Amino acid sequence: MADQDIRVLQQQLAELTEQLVRSEKLASIGQLAAGVAHEINNPIGYVASNLTVLKDYTNSLMLLVQRLSEQLPPAQSQLLKSQFDFDYICEDLPNLLQQSEQGLQRVIEIIRDLKDFSHIDQAEFVMADLHQGILSTLNIVANEIKYKAEVVKQFAELPPVFCIPSQLNQVLLNLLVNAAQAIVERGIITISTGCDAQWVWFSVADTGPGIAAEQLEQIFQPFYTTKPKGQGTGLGLALSRSIVEKHKGLIEVQSTPGVGSCFTVKIPRSITTT
User: Fold this and answer.
1) At a CB cut-off of 8 Å and minimum separation 6, what does 37 contact?
2) Does the pLDDT of residue 149 top 50, yes or no?
3) Mean pLDDT of the chain
4) DSSP the chain
5) Contact in structure between 202 and 173 (CB atoms under 8 Å)
6) Least confident piece of the model among 133-147, 176-190, 245-259
7) Contact between 220 and 226 (Cβ < 8 Å)
8) How far is CA 161 from the centre of its chain?
9) pLDDT band for position 16 (50/70/90)?
10) How confident is the model at residue 111, as a pLDDT?
11) CB within 8 A of 211, min separation 6: which ones?
């Protein structure tokens, strides 16, 4: 075997090893995230229940104070209400409880999405709702995106997809993070879905600086990155391509320098794992 062939095999082995390490890390992160979500879920349940009871108690106490104040002379009643800011409390307390309920509901949604997203170790193909995975992933990555871009969703009606949902979530996560990081100041990230007789797809388009034509041929290679040193491992797109290929799908990219980039992931409408 020629030295060049040996070097090619060694490089391929190194790439596969890195992908395996990356996959193992993702599985560990997924298990940790699922455990954390489960542990948080219980105390959040107590808080949600207690907040509902607190709302009823508050209404009863305010009504009691109002009824008792009616037993006093009007001047004395008004003085006491003014002294303890009763009218302001009656006005503000329901708003505080409503805001608390909304915040708690947001936490519950994040926990639910984290549990859905974090099944990284799931290795079985199942029929899944692609849009549900997109929405869950958007919630997980919201903090990464909200300061950089507005997210526009253009969803078509889709059939269920035979896939490993957590792995497609990971692909979408990589594409969304890359899109957010590509945008220099403030831009738009558009997530589109569609299907035809052969494919079901989703795409992530950004208004970043785009990718030069000579770089497009290299971006799926392991360790290749267009990001500044220390800001990217160069494994995200390589892993994404590996996952898509496992699903017998395609990942395509179109990019125009100065305009932006668009990555499209296509999954067959009907596939087998053999």
Assistant:
1) 111, 114, 115, 118
2) yes
3) 79
4) --HHHHHHHHHHHHHHHHHHHHHHHHHHHHHHHHHHHHHHHHHHHHHHHHHHHHHHHHHHHHHHHHHHHTTS-HHHHHHHHHHTTHHHHHHHHHHHHHHHHHHHHHHHHHHHHHHHHT-TT----EEE-HHHHHHHHHHHHHHHHTTTEEEEEEPPP---EEE-HHHHHHHHHHHHHHHHHH-SSSEEEEEEEEE-SSEEEEEEEE-S----HHHHTTTTSTT--SSPTTS--S-HHHHHHHHHHHTT-EEEEEEETTTEEEEEEEEESS----
5) no
6) 133-147
7) no
8) 19
9) low
10) 72
11) 219, 226, 253, 255, 257, 261
Round to whole Å and give the CA distance between 3 and 6.
5
In the block, residue with structure tokens 């996560």: 173
Give the model's pLDDT for residue 272.
Answer: 44
Structure confidence by residue, pLDDT tens digits, 48-102: 888 888 888 888 888 888 888 888 888 888 888 888 888 888 888 888 888 888 8
Give me 187's structure tokens. Answer: 């831009």
Percentage of the chain with pLDDT > 90? 24
List CB contacts of 113: < 8 A, sequence separation 6 or more.
135, 136, 137, 139, 140
- Record the tokens describing residue 213, joined without a space: 């034509």
Structure tokens at 198: 């052969």
